[in-house]
Amino acid sequence: MIRTRDSDRIRTVTLDRPERRNALTEDGLDALSAAVADPPAPVVYLHGAGTAFCAGADLDAVAAVARESAANPDAAADFARRGQRVARAIEDSPAVVVAGIDGAARGGGVELALACDLRVATPEATFAETGVTFGLFGAWGGTHRLRRVLGEGNALDVSLSGRTIDAEEALRIGLVSRVREDPFAVAREIADNDPDALRELKPLVRGGSATVEEREAREAEAFARLVADHAEALGRGTGSG
């Protein structure tokens, strides 16, 4: 279900279940978490096989959780926490995680994309938080990430309506940062940069729950580390810019 391929500077992670639009089972979630947790490359490129990015949770897995809930009231919450752990693993990965979204991203697929550092869509990409149409909502961290990425107004529109958004609208409201025929080219662009700088920069921009003062202190410390690591090259000077 999850395939990885490592090149010199990019780990490609493929959601490889095209017959189910790359919907994720519990085993698939665990495998995805492992694939992004400690990659050997500074950049991870996450994409789906076939004509979809990811349809979210496998409906058979959701049905099994629903049946289990009759005897175990914690089963549904445990399933949600499993997806949340995967989304956090993407956010906390030392690598920059680029989502290449081609075709449909639905429900949990949108939530996993939101956890990535960059989201790049093809013109054919579409997005929808469809849970409300059948009595659920995205519980893999999507409620707070959608608000963080889109702002409250757009987040409420997307989540409460369940409507489908095309790539052009996704770009306009900030759900994706670029629309490209070849999203992998953006991963290559990022990977061409200094890996130490990428590793230091990602958590600084992410910020988490740190205060402004804590974030600025971390920023200064990381900058100092990079200057020390590249002192010889910096000492030679490169002009302005």
Task: Characterize the structure shown.
By secondary structure, the protein is an alpha/beta fold. The chain has 2 domains: 190 residues, 2-enoyl-CoA Hydratase, Chain A, domain 1 (Alpha-Beta Complex), CATH 3.90.226.10; 30 residues. The strands form 2 sheets. It has a 6-stranded mixed beta sheet, sandwiched between helices. α1 packs parallel to α3, α3 runs parallel beside α4 and α4 packs across α5. The longest helix is centred in the middle third of the chain and has 18 residues. The chain is globular and about 65 Å long. The termini are far apart.
Radius of gyration: 19 Å
**CATH class membership of the largest domain:** Alpha Beta
- What is the architecture of the largest domain at the second tier of CATH? Alpha-Beta Complex
Report the biggest beta sheet as strand number plus sense, adding barrel if it closes. 6 strands, mixed
Strand order of the largest sheet: 1-2-3-5-7-10
Q: What is the overall silhouette?
A: globular
Low-confidence stretches: none
**Distance from first to last alpha carbon:** 45 Å
- With helices defined by DSSP (H or I, 4 residues minimum), what is the helix count? 11
Residue share in β-strands: 15-25%
Which whole number gives the mean pLDDT?
A: 90
Helix and strand string, N-terminal first? EEHEEHHEEHEEHHEHEHHHH
CATH superfamily of the largest domain, by name, is 2-enoyl-CoA Hydratase, Chain A, domain 1
